[in-house]
Amino acid sequence: MIKVKDKSACCGCAACVQICPKQCISLDEDKEGFLYPTVNRNLCIECGKCEAVCIELHSFEVREPLKVFAAQHFDESVRAASSSGGIFTLLAEAVINDGGVVFGARFDSDWSVVHDFTETHEGLQAFRGSKYLQSRIGNTYRQAEKFLKAGRKVLFSGTPCQIAGLKRYLHKDYENLLTVDFVCHGVPSPLVWKKYLEETIARQCEKNTVLLHSNPLISERGSMAGIRKRKIDAISFRNKNLGWKKYSFALTLSEVTTDGEKNTVLLSTIFPENEYMQAFLADFSLRPSCYACPAKGGKSGSDLTIGDFWGIEKIAPEIDDDKGCSLVIVHTDKKVNRLSNNSILSEISLRQDPFKGNPSYYISPYQPVNRAFFFSQFGKNGFCKAWKKTMSTKLQDRILRKIYQLL
Ligand SMILES: Cc1cc2nc3c(=O)[nH]c(=O)nc-3n(C[C@H](O)[C@H](O)[C@H](O)COP(=O)(O)OP(=O)(O)OC[C@H]3O[C@@H](n4cnc5c(N)ncnc54)[C@H](O)[C@@H]3O)c2cc1C
């Protein structure tokens, strides 16, 4: 029976929840906002399946990549909406064209992030773009298994730990399955995201404003006199208006005025100035298991690992137009053909050190000494105050981080 004694030894992939034949494992949110499994002992039959699928209880081999590519989607509008070069969409479109199913992460109606599947090109839109928080995987492993057994092609995309969880859940190789993970910096807390969003909206809007989620603005208008209603229209963690390398966090709000006009407001900050991105990139808001990730460096068992090709301007400057370039790491033989048939790919030799700009491929993030301080402040005062207080203690962390990186 699975028992999480040490939170750093559970990545929250929920393979245990999905494999349980008695469905007696539930996921509960802790104070930091991460989900952990709890077994209902009264229903558990001690079959051991949950332990058999747990990626933290098994070790995986680091794999040397077979090939590395730099890639860009040929459609400029797709590339603009994607975080890097749009390689995810390219792979997903090929699977949809073959009558297949694509699994990925999308925003839910309350702007939390969930895993889901689509069978259409239009459905891919919601998966495009990185959402920098841990997605709820739900029962997507089970859904994917059903499609695979029915002979459908399946592309399953996710974090390295989500892919490792899927592979252990399935327990066998499927020829019709393509697994795609990404170079992963780590996953921030969904609760930190929720609070950040609430506080940002509250800061930007007047006191008499309520935030609507997915409900239509116009039908709501006038139901509460004197109250202004705003709705989030779009969120991008990787807005490329200022370029791929200088990306921004962008939030689009809309409001219906008393005369029925729709006003749209764009809040946008470049990533080094955005507090949420600062806490993410300085490693404070990540899941405890991310600091010793069991699935990096190809250990997840994925067919492909994708990411931003940071440093492409030095390796292949002719490709770099600052509109986004994907790094594609090929781990398995069977999928190479699909990629090499495509003309927009340039193969990069391993001798050119394609991972130099992206150490997150191999290395887990450094756990800041003040992480616990940040989360204790977060519990008391919410995100923005907690982050301000933590920032004032960051010098010590910077020095320790430098030592960690040197080591
Ligand atoms: C939490 C997180 C950390 C990352 N860290 C790095 C990093 O350190 N270095 C790096 O090079 N790249 C990192 N990436 C990946 C990078 O941001 C791009 O997603 C990747 O380069 C693919 O870009 P694309 O242009 O091909 O497609 P895009 O359209 O941008 O990619 C979308 C893909 O990402 C998946 N996705 C989006 N959000 C999530 C989520 N929350 N959980 C699971 N899957 C999700 C979608 O399902 C889809 O498969 C990270 C992504 C996430 C979500």
UniProtKB/TrEMBL annotation:
The keyword Methyltransferase does not apply. Coiled coil: none annotated. Pfam families: Fer4_7, FrhB_FdhB_C. The keyword Transferase does not apply. Gene3D superfamilies: 3.30.70.20. Residues 1-30, 35-65 form the 4Fe-4S ferredoxin-type domain. Keywords: Iron, Iron-sulfur, Metal-binding. InterPro entries: 4Fe4S_Fe-S-bd, 4Fe4S_Fe_S_CS, FrhB_FdhB_C, Polyferredoxin-like_ET. PROSITE patterns: 4FE4S_FER_1, 4FE4S_FER_2. This is Coenzyme F420 hydrogenase/dehydrogenase, beta subunit C-terminal domain.
